[in-house]
Amino acid sequence: MLIHGLLIPDDLHYLVEQQTWARPLPGGVFRLGITALGLKASGEIYMCRPKSVGTELAQGRAMAVVELAKSIVSVKTPLSGTVLQVNKALEEQPELIWQDPYGEGWLLDLQASDWVGEQAALLSGEAARQPMEQYAWLNQIKPQT
Known about the structure:
11 strands, 21% helix, CATH 2.40.50.100, Glycine cleavage system H protein, 3-stranded antiparallel beta sheet, GCV_H/Fam206, 6-stranded antiparallel beta sheet, alpha+beta, lipoyl, 5 helices, 2-oxoA_DH_lipoyl-BS
């Protein structure tokens, strides 16, 4: 789907208030990243430091720190679990997050610890449309043309 001209893939699970996504991979693993809408609201990313492999994360807590033009912010994880892998390409090319947020700009892979219990907090497909549109409106994101 498109929200204000920005791609929000229907097959991902979103923690809308944090503008992060989770893509299911085999074996209870999820690839995590930041939405295009969240990136548009925050601006260009100059540096990204995901949590280290082996780190235990709790849903809604920091999974990475990013440096923006005027601030440093925590990126919140949509799921709890253990970090299995981080996107090493971001060390040299943090712009991948902005250029390809759902592909080469992913942040980390996580072994989910409570997918069944936490999935209710996530939205996907059409269920995500209205909350995403509201986020765009509240953050004064202008439609892309």
